[in-house]
Structures are given as C-alpha cells and as structure tokens.
Specification:
This protein has 134 residues and is of the alpha+beta class. The chain has 3 helices and 8 strands. The chain has an 8-stranded mixed sheet with strand order 4-3-2-1-7-6-5-8, sandwiched between helices. A hairpin with an 8-residue loop joins strand 1 and strand 2. The longest helix is centred in the last third of the chain and has 14 residues. The chain starts with 6 loop residues before the first strand and ends with a strand.
C-alpha cells in the first residue's frame, strides 16, 4: 500500500435536509491543490482548489462548504436510511495514511460514532490547506 500526501475519508453528503435516504457516502480527499468528493459510483461530485473554498462547521457537526460556486453539506455519519459505503470507496481511502489526530469525546463516540470529531478534523485540515472557514 502506498501512502499519499494528504487526507481521505468517507463522509456523508446531505443531498436533502429531510430525506435520510438522500444522505449518501462520498470519498472526500484533500491533496495539495485539490479538494475532491466522489460518490458510490466513482463519479466526481465536486473538485476544486481548497484555497478557493469557503464554509463553516455548524454546532451539530455539519461541514457546509462552497466549492466552485456550489454548496455542499457534509456530515461524519449517515442516517439509518443512508446507503453503506461501497468496497470501492473503502479501497479508495486505504491508500492514504490514517489520520492520527481524529479523536472525540466520550459523548460523541457513544452517541454519534465520532462523527463530530471527524468533521472538526476536516475543518482543521481544510483550513490548513487555505480554505476560508468560519
């Protein structure tokens, strides 16, 4: 397994605020000069320069980012109705070094599977790559 310089992980794209079945897994990757999300079929959802992205992390742990003029709401965990990540998505993130700085509190781990900690980590990584985040 080769290790890429950057971060990658499976997060969930909230395509609808109300319909949990439309909260779908995407592979989110951040490498020098590129932020990209790919869906279950390997299709690119968005791709852009992280220095041109902006957004914020909500109190409930949703990372709302704007990439190339479009808004995306990303969360660390899908709903009960969400499809599971594919084996291809798991394979896509396996080549990246595992992040060592993702940890959450006991409440986040027990009640939310560490989802808020994952999204706080993405917020930090994107800010470090030059994204304009609040």
């Amino acid at each position: 397994m080769s290790e890429h310089a950057g971060y990658a992980g499976i997060v969930y794209w909230r395509r609808s605020l109300w319909n949990g079945a439309r909260c779908v897994p995407v592979v989110l990757s951040l490498v020098p000069d590129e932020l990209r999300a790919q869906d279950r079929d390997g299709q690119v959802v968005f791709r852009g320069d992280p220095r041109k992205a902006d957004g914020r992390l909500t109190r409930l742990g949703t990372l709302v980012i704007n990439v190339e003029g479009k808004r995306y709401a990303l969360v660390g965990r899908g709903s009960d109705l969400s499809p599971a990540p594919t084996s291809g998505q798991h394979a896509a993130v396996s080549g990246f070094r595992p992040p060592s700085d993702v940890s959450g509190g006991a409440f986040d781990q027990i009640m939310n599977g560490g989802a808020m900690a994952r999204m706080r980590a993405w917020h930090t990584w994107l800010g470090g790559a030059g994204a304009r985040l609040r």
